[in-house]
Design a protein that fits this description.
This protein is an alpha+beta fold. The chain is built from twelve helices and ten strands. The N and C termini lie far apart (46 Å). It binds 2-acetamido-2-deoxy-1-O-phosphono-alpha-D-glucopyranose and magnesium ion.
Length: 368
């Protein structure tokens, strides 16, 4: 990746002192650009994470950073109140600029921010054992629980209609009609799969409109690699990637975790025969998630958790497919059919979840 700006100069605007040592690029996310920078501050090695926020997608950096600063302060305060051993690493700590803002807009209108690097933690891109996924469930359940008393109406929607599956479906249909990339003929089976499930896209949106499901403060991008696990205890201690924290459904957060983490294959596995929902992993996550979140959730939310997993996987599949049809303008891609490959894994997982829905419901009931 070429470095579009003098990184060191940028850090000085956030009041970082010390001698700049080096940086590495972190390539985990599909949207923002992330760098880890090392400084030598009076003989101490100090690391910071610098991010360039993608303002094509996050159009209101001010609102976004207000959301994040409010929510991270709340999480820290709650951890301090209970003397959590992880209180100093329980959330991200953003640095203000010399002017007192939590981001900096450069000459090209790119938005930069810096947070303290969290030490003694690791991240996972896939699950090696059930206990790690149980810990992931506890961590996202705790995130939900801790934010249950935070007013979701005080947050801006950083991406409007982000998980509104009715509007996602309409955008998807438009992408099929427009066929901007001319690739529609490569994706006929996938388009048919998506169209056949239009009814599903309405279920949660209708329940919100009928006042039956509450909007909460949710993360909305609960991929496994958005949790920092403690090196010593393996507990998930800090939730990162907070750009999509906004009002949403608990089901979105639960569902997206299952979509990503309980899949027996990677999100972009080319061999779809490797894709399936691991019921063992599903159970490990539900058990962990409900152990920390169950008192914050309504009966209807708990009942709908398996459907949440299916609908989030479906939504992600239509987003990848839509981007493929639009000519790869949203997600970073590494090769020509990358978005189509990702769509196929998501739809294979949806199909497997449909077959396993009864088992998912039974498992969920055990921990409600
Ligand atoms: C994007 O950038 P990353 O990897 O955290 C996307 C998520 C998708 C995910 C699929 C803002 O997340 O919604 O589920 O890719 N984030 C945004 O891997 O669109
Ligand atoms: Mg993200």
């Amino acid at each position: 990746m070429s470095i579009p700006f003098n990184l060191e100069k940028l850090c000085r605007l956030f009041n970082i002192k010390g001698e700049f040592v080096d940086y590495v690029v972190n390539t985990d996310g599909l949207i923002n650009s992330t760098f880890v920078l090392t400084f030598n501050e009076n003989g101490n090695v100090k690391k910071y994470t610098l991010q360039k926020v993608c303002t094509d997608i996050f159009k209101d950096p001010d609102g976004l950073m207000n959301n994040i600063v409010g929510v991270t302060k709340h999480i820290r305060k709650k951890n301090e109140e209970v003397n959590s051993p992880y209180a100093n690493r329980c959330t991200l700590t953003f640095l203000p600029t010399i002017e007192g803002k939590y981001y900096y807009l450069d000459e090209g209108n790119a938005c930069w921010r810096i947070y303290e690097f969290v030490d003694d933690v690791y991240t996972c891109n896939s699950i090696e054992n059930e206990n790690d996924f149980y810990n992931a469930g506890v961590a996202f359940g705790e995130f939900q629980n801790i934010l249950a008393d935070y007013d979701s109406a005080s947050l801006v929607e950083t991406i409007p209609n982000f998980h509104n599956t009715v509007s996602r479906f309409a955008d998807f249909k438009k992408a099929v009609d427009d066929n901007l990339s001319g690739r529609l003929s490569n994706a006929e089976k996938e388009v048919e799969f998506a169209l056949a499930r239009e009814k599903d896209a309405h279920v949660l949106v209708d329940l919100i409109n009928e006042g039956k499901l509450p909007l909460r403060v949710t993360h909305n991008d609960t991929k496994l690699n958005n949790i920092l696990f403690d090196n010593k205890t393996n507990k998930g201690i800090c939730i990162i990637d907070l750009d999509t924290v906004m009002p949403g459904l608990s089901l979105y957060d639960f569902g997206d975790s299952i979509r990503f983490g309980a899949n027996t294959a990677a999100e972009d596995e080319k061999d779809v025969s490797k894709v399936s929902l691991s019921l063992e992993l599903y159970e490990a996550y539900v058990k962990g998630y409900l152990s920390s979140a169950k008192h914050a959730l309504t009966d209807l939310e708990k009942e709908l958790l398996p459907f949440g997993a299916k609908i989030m996987t479906y939504e992600c599949g239509i987003r990848f497919l839509m981007d493929y049809l639009n000519g790869d303008t949203y997600f970073h891609t590494d090769y020509d059919d990358h978005n189509l490959v990702r769509c196929r894994t998501q739809f294979a997982l949806v199909a497997d979840m449909e077959n396993k829905m009864n088992e998912m419901l039974e498992i969920t009931k055990k921990y409600c």
